[in-house]
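Notes continue from the previous slide.

Worked example: a multi-chain complex. Inputs as given:
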Amino acid sequence: MSKQRILTGITTTGTPHLGNYVGAIRPAIEASQREDAESFYFLANYHALIKCQDAEQVHQSTREIAATWLALGLDTDRAVFYRQSDIPEIPELCWLLTCMAAKGLMNRAHAYKAAVAANLEAGEDPDFGVTMGLYSYPVLMAADILMFNANEVPVGKDQIQHVEMARDIAARFNHHYGEHFVLPEARVDEHVSVLQGLDGRKMSKSYGNTIPLFLPEKKLKKHINKIKTNLLEPGEPKDPDDSTVFQIWRAFATPEQTAEMQQAFADGIAWGEAKKQLFELVNEHIGDARERYEALMNNPGHIEEVLQAGAVRARQHSQPLLEKLREAVGIRPLG
Ligand code: TRP
């Protein structure tokens, strides 16, 4: 049986945080060790340009995200790890797909609809501030996925629609030009937790409530101390189910440690003490990776080499497929 191909992209606009780690990076690295699968993971820096016009930030984030995945032990001999912009076949495929993508389909994309709704709310023109990049975002994402004929696309809930759009576009292409594309499926892992941030809402860069993954120890401690808690005093029993401290604990702890902390909550552990233990747990968990991360961040030339090698491997797939696609749509030599 041929291997399942898993593919996912990470938009390079921010600094990886505990929520990214628990919700996406850790499960992706685990999946890349599966014998029955091959993984394609990439830095979506073209996607980054849609939401972020700060060149330094896009560049810095690309470096941080690459260093993070490598520091956490992604085995780049197994997984194909590359940067979107190193694969020139992707934007070319994006155009072929743009010519197959129904405008009406794009009109229904959540991100675009949300921008329009916000404009109407503010009494602006519906398309105020909407770039063609934002509008066509799902087509570029379809190109990312279809370029490598991925079967499984692990994503957060907000991205399911985009994977479905990739299927639609692929089906339309196949219908016109023959069976070139596998129809991908979104995979939303119900087991992995979506972490809450400092304020109790979902941990997300857009809420400014994150705990960056590789903070220096002192800063990590400070951030953990900032997690919002209720006013219950030491000795008063606390409810683990509505506590961000407990939730993060559980994401890093063994089942035994989780049971112990649950008991400590019932026994009225002080918030300060719970946070101190949480800091120690997280710090211990990521300590070695943080050292590797710092070394990598100080050696960007090495990261670049790893990405270039990944691009060579990725292009072994994208080049022949794109050649076939060009042929299929009628772009071929005359002689
Ligand atoms: N749009 C995705 C996000 O913001 C990132 C992404 C880009 C992606 N291309 C992809 C995810 C292809 C999966 C497959 O999270």
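Summary box: Residues 300-329 form the longest helix (30 residues). The first strand starts at residue 4 and ends at 11.
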